[in-house]
Structures are given as C-alpha cells and as structure tokens.
C-alpha cells in the first residue's frame, strides 16, 4: 500500500485535502471540461454529499490569482501529480489567472427570514473581506471602493446586498485587469429551508436579484459555476439569465466528476487492501446513474471503508440517511394516497415505476401534485433512472427504481416513523386483549386489519416486520394490563424477537416472527418460528428467570398479510 493516506471523511476543502495528505480521488479533469465547453453560467445539480463543495474549492484553488510567488508555489504544489497538469499546456496555462469569488450558501439559512438574511449577508461579507486588499488599489473607482469596504465591514443598513456580487466582480476586474470567476456552492439550500420554514417568497426575491445582478450581462464575469441539489425553475430564480447551462443527473457531460466511478471505488478498496468488501459496497452504495455513468455515493463509501479499517467485521449501514435531511421523503409519505403507497411498495420490493420527469422545479410546487414529489425524489438521489421514453412530443417519462440497499433502508425507516405516528392514533386494545388471552385468531385479524387500513407498503425483510410489531406493542406497557415489552433479549441459546412479560412474573408471552416468499408458505413460516423457540430453549430460560408460565406465538408475514399460531 505504500505510505498510508487517511480517509477524507467530511473533508470538503481541496486545500485541506491536499495539505493533509488524504486519499484523493482525482476529479481535476472537471477543469479541462469546463475550459473545453466554455459555458458562461454552468449549474451542476447533484444529490447531497456527492462532492460538489470539494470540486468547487478545487476550482477556486486552481483558477484564483496567487497573491505572491510563495502562494503561486503553494498553488502548483496542490495540483502536482494530478490529471489536470498532465492534460496539456493550454490547461496548465490557465492556473492562477483569474480573481475568484467563492460563495457557499450551505449554511445560509434560518428559522425565519431575519435569521436567514443575516446568514446570507454574513457569507457575502466573508468573501468581501477575503478580497479586501484589492479595494486599496488606485485603479478602483472611489464609489466602488467605498461600497465594497462598507460591505466588508458589515454595513447592512446602507448597502444593497442584492448587487454585492456584481460590485465585487467589478472591483476585482478594476484591481487586477482580469474578469472574475464566480463560484456559488449549494445555491438552493436556502430555498429548501425557506420552503419548510415559511419564508420562501422573500428568499426567492433576494436570490433572484443577487444572481441576476452577478450573472446577467455582467461585463466583469469570465464564467460562473453553481452547484445545488435541484434546478429551481427559471421563472422563479433564473429569470432572464443568458442561457445558463444546466448539468443535471440526466446530462452526459461532466458525468464522472461527481461521485465515485466503479473504477475509482475498486482502486480505493485495493489501496487499503479491502477488495473483498467490493460486493457489499456495490449493493449498498452503488446504483446511481449520472448521464450514462454508473456512480457510487462517495460519502457512504468512505464512511464504510473507515469502519472496516477499524474492524473487518463492520456491517454496512445507511450513512447518507444522517446527512442529507429526509424532509422530502417524509413529505411524500405523509401526503401519500393509496396509489402512491402501492407504488412505494413496488419500489421497496425491487420493482420500478414510470413517471413524467421535468427539470424545472420550485419548492413552492412540491404540494401541488404527486408527480412533483417523484421529481424531487429522482433529482435528489432517492430514485435512479432505468430507462426513459419521449411521449406527446415533449414529455419525458422515466422508469425509475431505488438505487441501492442504503436508500431502501431510508424509505423503510421513514415509513416506520410514519407508521409509529399512526399507531399512537389507533385503538390497540383489541390486539392487546387477544394477545394476552391467547386468542391467536383474533390477534391475527387485528394485525391484518391494521396493515390494510394504515399502511400499503411492506419491506420483505424480517427486520421491518420486527419494527412493525415493536411499534404495535410498545403501548402495552402503559395500557394498565400490568405487562411490559422487551425486544431482542438474550435467552436460552439465542435471541427471541419480542417478549411481553407480566410485571409480577406470573406470565410471559414470547413472539417469534418469520417472513415468507409466498402466501402459501405462511403456515410453514409460523411452524418454523415456533420450532426456533423450542429448539433454542427460549422458554426454558424465561422459566429459570422466574416466570410461572410462558405462552409462545409464531407469526409469519407475507407482504400485507400475517398468520398467527400458538405454541407447538
């Protein structure tokens, strides 16, 4: 393996990446493609945690004018050995040739408009202060100098921050004699937050003015690059811009520059001697398709690799679920009608759905139709393209599926949360009474009634049904029956699924569950569950613990049906 390189989890600064000696998956040919295609305003839309910020800081470090020879030497060192310096002299000659404006909006949000506006202004002021030395040159017009210094000093009362990027690019061109590159990272994060917090119109108005002034007929602009999760429709925020080039996950250009390609993942695992984990990584974190390029989720791959370096037995888990915010999935599930829930069931079971897809989206439209929600899920990485067709001359219909196990688990967990909320609103006294009285037939009817009335989607994995039953029986502890619930405890030679025990130890109820692949197998599934309890001696252990009586239920699940049987 040679010199060990640390895994760059959470490192989204290119300078820190290179200075810290982290393992870097070389994406510098993004620079070459930008220079070759010569788009004036380029908007890249990719899901969260797919390397957008790292790429944007890489562009900044490559293009920005160094302040002196020491800075120029440092700049050359950052790119030493990388693909862009091997691409040819014309590309190497572009290094360090532009003043660069870099604005990140990933933290520019708040619980209300006042907080969000203050956060936006703060980000703008940081960038003005970074360029403060340029404001002292004789070439600047006095009015521009005064305005720039006021913004750098945080004078929000007298300055119009909506024109700030245009002002800064003009000042930088006057100071350096070169047009500026503008980089705006995660431009749509403030819009997402504004939608969910209720100040969307104010945010749209501010950002529309900010972007138009910077990107529309700005004579001091060399070119611009923006990143985000979604393309917010032109009518809302890009009105009048000079034909911005939109590079979404459906575009073939730039496809390999965000996320890890299969070859990059194989090289990464080989570097750390973890090639045997490739199939796990593929099934959990692969499955995205950008253009025609197969792509892995880089955040999840790196987190899983870090885990198996610590322990080779580390199990995969949904790392992405904890970072990207699942408000969109939650909204879909909460507002879903029966038809949508059936489509969710199809997706979780590994099937596909076909929906019309359009790239012009506004957060304000999210609630207007289910088709808008499917668009959100597709462009934010919760679904992937299988195929597409053109219908009616201009409507694209996309066949989609869930990309991998990680995203499947996000759906499952989100829907289980919704399920738990439904449980709290449901009278479960009939279920509890049937369970405690040994009425397996009534118990089966109660569980099936709940499934049909409250949920139209089932994950075929046993863990999902275990969570479902846990949710149903959680309330028994406070039902006044004198029983409480335990789950997955050691007993005998293994672990039982659920135990409902009387507080005075006079009675214990064991529930063991199984999933089956066919409706006709429900009966045999129950028998297998009961045999496991007998063979693993779960009941004997509970008797030794002090319970006077142990009753066992075997429950088998198939899709939205269950079968319940009492002890053998």
Shape: elongated
**Largest sheet composition:** 5 strands, parallel
Q: Please bin the fraction of helical residues.
A: 40-55%
Q: Which structural class matches the secondary elements?
A: alpha/beta
Q: What share of residues are in beta strands?
A: 15-25%
How many strands?
17
Strand order of the largest sheet: 2-3-4-1-5
* Termini Cα gap: 57 Å
Number of helices: 22
Poorly predicted sequence stretches spanning 5 or more consecutive residues: none
**Rounded mean pLDDT score:** 89
Radius of gyration: 29 Å
Can you characterise this structure?
The protein is α/β, with parallel strands linked by helices and 568 residues long. Helices cover 43% and strands 16% of the residues. The protein is built from 22 helices and 17 strands. It has helices spanning 14-19, 29-37, 52-63, 69-78, 89-92, 113-130, 142-152, 164-176, 189-197, 200-215, 262-271, 278-285, 298-310, 327-335, 338-348, 370-379, 405-424, 429-437, 440-454, 462-473, 522-535, 538-545; strands at 41-45, 100-104, 180-185, 221-228, 245-247, 288-290, 293-295, 353-357, 384-391, 395-401, 483-487, 490-491, 494-495, 498-502, 508-515, 550-558, 561-566. A five-stranded parallel sheet has the order 2-3-4-1-5, sandwiched between helices. The protein has a five-stranded mixed sheet with strand order 11-14-15-16-17. It has a three-stranded antiparallel sheet with strand order 8-10-9. Strand 14 (498-502) and strand 15 (508-515) form a beta hairpin. The protein is elongated and about 90 Å long. The mean pLDDT is 89.
């Amino acid at each position: 393996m040679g010199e060990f390189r640390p895994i760059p989890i959470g490192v989204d600064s290119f300078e820190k990446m290179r200075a810290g000696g982290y393992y870097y998956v070389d994406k510098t040919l993004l620079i070459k493609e930008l220079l070759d295609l010569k788009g004036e305003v380029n908007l890249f839309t990719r899901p969260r945690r797919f390397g957008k910020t790292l790429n944007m800081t890489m562009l900044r470090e490559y293009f920005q004018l160094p302040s002196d020879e020491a800075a120029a030497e440092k700049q050359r060192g950052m790119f030493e050995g990388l693909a862009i310096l091997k691409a040819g002299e014309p590309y190497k000659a572009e290094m360090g040739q532009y003043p660069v404006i870099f604005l990140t909006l990933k933290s520019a949000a708040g619980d209300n408009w006042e907080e969000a506006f203050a956060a936006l202004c703060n980000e703008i002021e940081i960038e003005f202060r970074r360029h403060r030395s340029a404001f002292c040159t004789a070439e600047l017009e006095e009015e521009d100098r005064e305005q720039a210094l006021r913004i750098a000093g945080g004078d929000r009362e007298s300055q119009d921050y909506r024109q700030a990027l245009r002002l800064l690019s003009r000042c930088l061109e006057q100071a350096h004699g070169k047009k500026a590159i503008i980089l705006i990272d995660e431009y749509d994060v403030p819009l997402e937050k504004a939608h969910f917090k209720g100040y969307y119109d104010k945010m749209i108005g501010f950002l529309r003015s900010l972007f138009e002034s910077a990107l529309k007929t700005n004579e001091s602009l060399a070119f611009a690059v923006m990143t985000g999760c979604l393309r917010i429709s032109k009518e809302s925020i890009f009105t009048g811009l000079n034909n911005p080039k939109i590079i979404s996950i459906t575009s073939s250009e730039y496809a390999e520059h965000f996320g890890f390609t299969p070859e990059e993942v194989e090289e990464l695992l080989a570097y750390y001697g973890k090639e045997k984990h490739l199939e796990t990584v593929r099934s959990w974190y692969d499955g995205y398709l950008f253009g025609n390029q197969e792509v892995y989720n880089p955040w999840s791959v790196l987190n899983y690799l870090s885990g198996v370096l610590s322990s080779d037995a580390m199990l995969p888990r949904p790392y992405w679920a904890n970072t990207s915010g699942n408000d969109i999935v939650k909204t879909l599930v909460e507002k879903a009608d029966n038809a949508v829930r059936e489509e969710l069931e199809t997706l979780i079971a590994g099937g596909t759905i076909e929906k019309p897809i359009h790239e012009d989206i506004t957060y304000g439209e999210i609630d207007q139709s289910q088709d808008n929600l499917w668009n959100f899920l597709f462009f934010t990485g919760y679904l992937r393209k299988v195929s597409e067709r053109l219908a009616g001359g201009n409507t694209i219909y996309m066949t989609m599926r869930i990309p991998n196990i990680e995203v499947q688990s996000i759906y499952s967990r989100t829907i289980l949360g919704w399920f738990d909320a439904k449980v709290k609103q449901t009278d479960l006294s009939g279920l509890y009474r049937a369970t405690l009285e040994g009425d397996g037939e009534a118990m089966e009817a109660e569980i099936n009634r709940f499934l049909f009335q409250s949920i139209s989607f089932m994950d075929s994995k046993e863990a999902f049904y275990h969570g479902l039953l846990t949710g149903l029986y959680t309330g028994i502890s406070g039902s006044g029956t004198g029983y409480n619930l335990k789950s997955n405890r050691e007993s005998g030679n293994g672990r039982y699924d659920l135990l409902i025990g009387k507080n005075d130890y006079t009675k214990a109820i064991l529930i063991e569950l199984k999933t089956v692949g066919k409706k006709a197998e429900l009966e045999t599934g129950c028998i297998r569950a009961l045999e496991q309890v007998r063979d693993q001696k779960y009941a004997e252990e509970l008797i030794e613990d002090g319970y006077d009586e142990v009753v066992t239920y075997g429950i088998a699940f198939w899709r939205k049906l269950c079968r319940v049987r009492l002890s053998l």
